[in-house]
Design goal:
The complex is a heterodimer of chains A (about 250) and B (about 300).
Chain A (H helix, E strand, L loop, with lengths): L1 E10 L2 E11 L4 E5 L6 H8 L7 E6 L2 E2 L5 H6 L2 E4 L11 H8 L6 H17 L1 H4 L11 H13 L5 E5 L7 H16 L3 E6 L2 H7 L2 E6 L2 E7 H6 L1 H7 L7 H5 L1
Parallel strand pairs in A: 3-8, 3-9, 6-7, 7-8
Antiparallel strand pairs in A: 1-2, 1-4, 4-5, 9-10
Helix pairs in contact in A: 3-6
Chain B lengths: L1 H35 L6 H18 L4 H24 L7 H22 L5 E2 L7 E4 L2 E4 H23 L1 H11 L1 H6 L4 H22 L3 E2 L3 H16 L6 H24 L8 H13 L14
Antiparallel strand pairs in B: 1-4, 2-3
Classes of the chains: A alpha/beta (about 250), B mainly alpha (about 300).
Bound molecules: adenosine-5'-diphosphate (ADP) and magnesium ion (MG).
Chain lengths: ~250, ~300
């Protein structure tokens, strides 16, 4: 569905992505794990057009979308839930969700959008009772639900998720990941970025490990879960720290 | 002191009349600031064109006033749109500071352009309805009723636009979080264009109703006053501009009036009152009376 070839991106003169190759198969949950600063968010930003890329391609159902404007990429069916949720804090929950459907205006689409709103509210029941509340007054977990719900309102075919577990309590994380599984069962393709390798690998099919802007390892999620190296570095088992490994 | 109290209704009326103009200009500053992060130093020149176009269309071209008014506002809006496409949009990858400096350039250019075409110090723009209305203790021009009505109408329209329309909500989304706005499919550069169209129309309307005189120099004063009103109300808070404009307009009358009558100080420094208020607000309450409101972060 999405094929990234030899992608490089820079912040000024700093190379934040170095010749990244990555495949996303339709209908699967693909995950990217890696420590803070590895370049995971940068990769998502490059896919959704928020930052320019210098070399390489991002092929999405046949077209190269590298350096396309973000709103065109949304129109093509890619929706990005950014790191830190980034809800429209001074607008209501309902306004946030409806802005998610910004590109689906017009009378004919209105019914579809209303159906999708119902779908999102069924998926995240806490949002239903808070439709008129300002998004900034929601708890962290609710804001994450809102951010995912807002992204779903564009009816994406590919959902990019940047650390949905960040700063949330274990129970809330479980809730959100259960929702992701449900979305996947309904046919949505997901690219999940996580620092929490355990939970990410447990829901996904295929995984990439990033470090310092490069893909260091890839494989079936189950395989990586069993791999010695991953267990040591990312699952906190054994004594080797990442710093030691870098030396 | 008694004289001061007796004059108060007149001060309030004059303050309200000027305040209306400041409201329109200040809303323009806020709308552009919210969509782009830019403080548009050419905002006052939109008003200058509003006044001069009104002069050209009524006196030079002989059009009836309502038609001339509409055409003048539309032309200024168009000019604002052109400014965005030709100056601001090409700088979209540069820093906000660069864009702000470009608006200073635009302001100088507009003023020179105005001066080349309309070189006199003052052009008489006809009032919508001439004459005055006298009530006990207050005399206001009939024009004042138009100023008031048009300001109320503009503020209401802007309110409806931001709260009820798709484009208005998208512009609010941009002001809260531009990156998130682009991730839901909003074309943020298109919103930047809309904000210049709207701000220029509001500025143009202010210039148009600020009759009786228009000149190439009028943009500076209205720009400074409008910016002060925006800061007083809370920069980025579109409806804070209403409070800011009224407060500034009224204080600008009351303070010199009080000092003149009670302490015998001449009113020659009247123009500096806004500057003093601006500095005081920036020092003691930089977020303005109502706070930033629309651009608050979590
Ligand atoms: N806006 C930015 N400007 C400059 N450098 C940045 C910016 N954002 C991220 N970086 C740098 O790029 C690298 C990758 O960051 P990021 O993609 O956020 O990592 P991750 O999401 O894996 O934690 C880091 O070294 C970070 O410091
Ligand atoms: Mg990150």
């Amino acid at each position: 569905m999405l094929e990234i070839k030899n992608l490089s991106a820079f912040y000024g003169n700093v190379e934040a992505l170095r010749a990244v190759d990555l495949w996303i198969r339709a209908g699967q949950i693909t995950t990217i794990i890696g420590a803070n600063g590895a370049g995971k968010s940068t990769l998502l930003r490059a896919i959704s057009g928020l930052i320019p890329t210098r070399y390489g391609e991002i092929r999405y159902v046949g077209t190269n979308i590298a350096n396309m404007e973000p709103h065109r990429i949304v129109r093509m069916g890619i929706s990005h839930v950014p790191e830190g949720r980034q809800v429209f804090s001074t607008m209501t929950v309902e306004e946030n969700l409806m802005l998610g459907a910004y590109l689906r205006s017009g009378r004919r689409k209105r019914k579809e959008v209303a159906e999708d709103l119902e779908f999102v509210l069924d998926l995240f029941p806490p949002l239903r009772t808070r439709l008129r509340q300002l998004a900034g007054t929601l708890s962290g977990g609710e804001q994450q639900m809102l951010a995912v719900g807002r992204a779903l309102m564009s009816r994406p075919r590919l959902l990019l998720l940047d650390e949905p577990s960040m700063g949330l309590a274990p129970l809330v994380i479980k809730d959100i990941f259960n929702c992701l599984k449900r979305l996947h069962e309904q046919g949505l393709t997901i690219l999940l970025v996580e620092q929490d390798a355990q939970i990410a690998l447990s829901v996904s099919h295929y995984a990439y490990v990033m470090r310092a802007g490069k893909i260091r390892m890839e494989g079936e999620a189950e395989e990586l879960l069993r791999s010695e190296e991953i267990r040591h570095i990312y699952l906190g088992e054994g004594g080797i720290s990442e710093d030691e490994l870098m030396r | 002191m008694l004289d001061f109290w007796r004059n108060c209704p007149q001060y309030l009326a004059n303050g309200l009349a000027n305040g209306c103009l400041y409201i329109l200009v200040a809303m323009g500053f806020n709308i552009i600031y919210n969509s782009t992060g830019i403080i548009n130093f050419a905002q006052g020149e939109f008003s200058m064109f509003g006044g001069l176009f009104a002069y050209a269309l009524t006196v030079s071209a002989g059009l009836p006033i309502p038609l001339a008014a509409i055409l003048a506002v539309l032309s200024v809006a168009l000019l604002g749109g052109l400014m965005e496409r030709l100056i601001i949009n090409p700088l979209r990858r540069s820093s906000v500071i660069t864009a702000i400096i470009a608006t200073i350039g635009a302001s100088i250019f507009f003023k020179s352009l105005g001066r080349v075409i309309w070189p006199l110090e003052a052009y008489k723009v006809p009032e919508f309805t001439p004459g005055n209305i006298s009530l006990p203790g207050v005399t206001v021009s009939r024009q004042f009723l138009w100023v008031f009505a048009l300001t109320v109408a503009s503020v209401s329209l802007v309110y409806v636009f931001f709260n009820r329309t798709r484009a208005g909500k998208a512009m609010r989304a941009c002001s809260v979080n531009r990156q998130a706005a682009s991730l839901v499919g909003i074309d943020v550069f298109r919103m930047s264009l809309y904000s210049f169209l709207l701000a220029a129309a509001l500025g143009g309307a202010a210039g148009l109703i600020s009759a009786p005189y228009a000149s190439y120099g009028m943009g500076l004063e209205l720009g400074v006053k409008g910016f002060t009103a925006a800061v007083v109300g809370g920069l980025g808070n579109v409806f804070g501009a209403v409070v800011g404009g009224l407060v500034l307009g009224v204080l600008e009358e009351l303070i010199p009036g009080f000092l003149h009558i009670v302490l015998g100080i001449s009113t020659g420094y009247k123009g500096a009152v806004a500057a003093v208020i601006l500095i005081a607000v920036l020092l003691f309450r930089p977020q303005g009376i109502l706070g930033k409101g629309m651009v608050e972060k979590v």
